[in-house]
Design a protein that fits this description.
48 strands, alpha+beta, 4-stranded antiparallel sheet, Neuraminidase, 43% strand, Serine Threonine Protein Phosphatase 5, Tetratricopeptide repeat
Length: 689
Amino acid sequence: MRTAVVVVAVVLLAATLLALDARQSSPQALFEKALALEEVQGKVTEAIAVYQKVVSESGDKALAAQAQLHIGLCYERLGLEKARDAYEKVIKNYPGQAAAVAVAQEKLDAILRATSLSKKGEGGPTIRQVPTPAGTAVSGAVSPDGKYLADIGENECDLRIVELPTGRQRFLTTRGECSWSPRWSSDSTKLVVSHKPGLCVISLDGSAPRVLADAGAVGGSLEPLDWSPDQKSVLALLWPRDQKSLGARLVAVADGSVRSLKDFGDISGAPAPPFDCRFSPDGLTVVYSRPAKSDDSRRDVFLISADGSRETTLIQHPADDAFLEWLPDGRGILFASNRAGTYDLWSIQIDKGQPQGAPTLVRRSIGPITPMRLTRGGAFYYQTPASFMDVYTASLDPETGTVAGPPKKEPLPYEGHNRWPDWSPDGRLLAYVSVRPTIVGPFAPGRNREWIVSIYSADTGKVREFPHDRVFLSPQWSPDGRHLYLLASNMSGRGVYRMDVESGEVAPFLGAGENQVVRYFQVSADGKWMVYGRRSGILRRDAITGDEKELDRSAVSLGNLVLSPDGSHLAYALQIDEKTKVLKVTQFPDGTPKEIQRLTETDGPTEIAWSRDGRFIYYSDCPPAGGNDWHLWRVPAEGGTPQDVGLGVRDFERLGVHPDGRRITFAAATINPERSQVWVMENFLPARK
């Protein structure tokens, strides 16, 4: 009898395991796995293989059509050739799936338009996509001879050179020698970059970087903009430590001496400060854009003599006008303007420093592009913006605390542009910031992006938006749900502001002090205490008296901090030396910090969230064996063995457990079908009269 029972139990267990395995390998499960690989982890090639399996095995035409569509989306990130074939298969093989066919047709039309433009021949304008490696950065620049693209590569640190059009690449710096804003010399043999010490010159021959100007000696950071045609000077923007009085400076290549060209005054409230100044081809003048008013993002275009003695207004218009490039012959400029409702490409002729006649429309609807170079041969290289962050929610198993199933993207508008999520105390509203490309120019906080504080209602699906002149980050709900606390960026006033969620009105709440930046901020549930972090320390402030106490100053840099749901404990991550990052917990408001976990990943921020019962702390770190993905872990609040809860993404931002305790929300990097792309426009320059 006992033997029969055992046999039956074994048979039932085997059947259960087979059923479980069947569910995990079902077409729907495979589709969800591929979707996670594509959108969450960014493993596009692996996702294609799984989608192809869904297409071949699924009897559900709707699911197969979606899988085939996503194959096209994945291929589009890798290049247009195979994407076109994939979209054609959606239209041909699944004519009854209207939604998938409509998207495929729209994508196919865009590819065909781009292809037809590139085949018009020498007689008319052409536009074509330039093959580039994945992860091409928005600070890239094309050499004047059109042979090379320089950018900062996938890890946002190393200086990379890409040969055009072959796509072959090599690195001029290694990890730890971070370089930004590369700018080419006129002979295409050298680059000037913003480097840790200041400005550095790097040659293509691989010789060691030469420090041109020390940022500390000039009182701020230097951002290179252009070389003089004779290669004797570098034009740079000086960002002073107070982030207010921006200025254009000329740095001598021979000895690093710095000369002032133009001071722009206090630009701390300006959404779009000046950028992309350029020497004229003869080196006698410089053209730049800047806002007409300090509180307005709309720019005009100006010309100044290279010795700073004379300045002329080239373009003055109520619209936003952004200087792009000098024409190769030096007798005019290209600029972008939204005077006709969209950003269009215009040109204007210049003679002896004065505009000649009215601007000429060159091309309509270029969009919010980043200019990369108008080569000597008349080819205009530019970059289209990429989607970079989305908000996701993953289900938590209430018993084990592990993630149940792949994370799902929150249904928010402007996909790929949403960051810093935070649920309201009642769990009905989700606050976040939508960061959208809006104007022409290189990416930088406050320059060519709108940073819109937004609140999504889980009940109605509607979103309320609160645009502001300042750049606000990282919204956090007040304990009563009536306000949002917002961190202000350096450009728009340091510290914490408080926004009324009904009226949208904001007011200063916590000043950071001179030369200080508030990095993280929390208000206790009873409203009695505030705790915030600066570069290397954590401070507690009495909300009534304003008295402050330093809780921990052992950090080289601060990772993150968050109060437990009942406000009785504070958890925070900090870097204590170059190789060590730790997670600490202390009783709040007074207690002795206790280290509960040493972290694997020392580069990048560590995100923290408490479980709703206060027993565990979720945190982001790399898996034990290393790898490119960040993993979600949890550890008992009193310390103990950490647990990998089964979720890995490219990076985590702003972890938060939903008030119901069954979901965890975060922002993560996304690989959007409309990834950043490099394009070149040729045969488009207006004929000289």
